[in-house]
Request: fold
Amino acid sequence: MKRSLEHIQYTDDTETLARFAKALGHPTRITILQYLEKQSCCFTGDLVDVLPFSQSTISQHLKELKNAGLIQGEVNPPKIKYCIHQENWKIAKRLFKSFFE
Amino acid sequence: MKRSLEHIQYTDDTETLARFAKALGHPTRITILQYLEKQSCCFTGDLVDVLPFSQSTISQHLKELKNAGLIQGEVNPPKIKYCIHQENWKIAKRLFKSFFE
DNA sequence: AAAATCTATCGTATATTTGCGATAAACAAT
DNA sequence: ATTGTTTATCGCAAATATACGATAGATTTT
Reply:
């Protein structure tokens, strides 16, 4: 991909909002987050049981949600407990709200 | 890409929310929408002047926003006037709001 | 020590996204 | 009729996303 200018500078809020939105841009990830909102927390395996995708695919979606900052995982051997990242969740909520006015 | 099951059925709201989120998942498109929120409407050329991308690239982003239902274009020869799609905008606002509770 | 459980990561294949320049299409003005 | 203006679309290239099976790593249980 070629870019005409080195790096366009959007505002930080714009970048952040786009990053959150991108992470939400897949029905599986929306579903995972809705599940987490209800359950408060869950293990990867719970989602594998619920969603019709392979373990590796679910794991990848979780990774993306984690990279976007929307969830966090605590090691709880041999499992990993995933929860919503409350702090960033609030930021996302605020950014979307103010975006839509 | 292989899919293990023919078609997963998410709820309509989940599908719709993901579709909106995906369209919002790029800083340029966020910027375009913020511009439209302020200006209420604009022409493609206005955005080409403001954003550091080629006319064809801007046009493509507008197409995606239109496909997602977030904006609409009225022909106003030889220009095209783009506005926020108020009805769908309200739906998006509601879906995001209830998603974040 | 061996087996079982759980999850991340690697490698691979395919689809989609993002960007550009060039061109086409639609209309207005000359 | 020709020219200019505006925008969409085509064709291309590179990057990213999505899915899978196989495997590796960590820890518990036996």
About this structure: The mean pLDDT of chain A is 90. Residues 1-4, 43-45, 48, 55-56, 58-60, 62-63, 77-80 of chain A lie near DNA strand C (CB under 10 Å from a C1'). Chain A touches chain B through 35 residues (CB under 8 Å). The longest helix of chain A spans residues 86-100.
